[in-house]
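Reopening: structure tokens for the NAP complex, inputs below.
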Amino acid sequence: MNAFSLEGKTALVTGANTGIGQAIAVAMGRAGASVICGGRRSCAETVSQISDAREMVLDFADPMAARDVFADERIDILVNNAGIIRRSDAVDFSEADWDDVIDVNLKAVFFTSQAFGRAVLARGGAGSIVNIASLLSVQGGIRVASYTASKHGVAGITKLLANEWAAKGVNVNAIAPGYIATNNTEALRNDEARNRAILERIPAGRWGEADDIGEAAVFLASPAAKYIHGAVLNVDGGWLAR
Ligand code: NAP
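Re-run output (same inputs, fresh job):
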């Protein structure tokens, strides 16, 4: 048996229409999983790259949007990837920019995990959650108050859920991506000074690719990671080692 295979497993990836979520969905498909591509818009482009995949409409503007998803069918792997960011000086930060980000990045992650966990525990265990955290799960960042709060929260609930569910057959872990070239980081890459400063600090000397995260997510969802619980795996080209 290949311990890195996801053959026979069904994975739900949120925010799978683009960026890191798309790369995770495609990598999980390559590893043999049947993939449900969750998105608030069409995931057709992602589905077309996977041999066994379909779409599911999931808009976390309602953080409880996935409450009924896991009761209807057996899903073995949940990847909480959907996320947003808002930038503003702390003194000007608006309540809307706080609430919108916390709802999608943190509240939806917890309640989607809760719904998944309830279903997996009810059938006697065996499931994996991979949360997409951030460097800002451990660093402060700048001008991104709600994002930093949400991603610190994601690291926290990853550990909390691992503590509650590790002995019951559910692995809960997270990935902290470094600077990955996606829509989320377009503003940073377009800012010449920030882009240069970021690149100078990354030991690997390049921005990450979404697929760098895809392969790490396959690992954490696979039997090879069965004794890994509550970990936040940095996939950051060495950024946090500096
Ligand atoms: P992205 O290209 O902007 O993708 C974000 C995904 O989340 C998109 O599919 C987006 O859908 C979806 N999404 C946003 N709001 C949603 C909602 N209300 N309901 C459902 N889906 C929603 O950015 P990305 O870089 O791939 O980000 C993916 C995850 O990685 C996020 O959690 C982000 O915080 C995290 N991350 C990224 C980096 C990086 O360097 N790129 C670093 C650390 C962590 P739409 O396309 O419809 O907006």
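The chain has a mean pLDDT of 97. The beta strands are 10-13, 34-39, 53-57, 77-80, 127-132, 170-177, 232-235. Marking as resolved unless the reporter disagrees.
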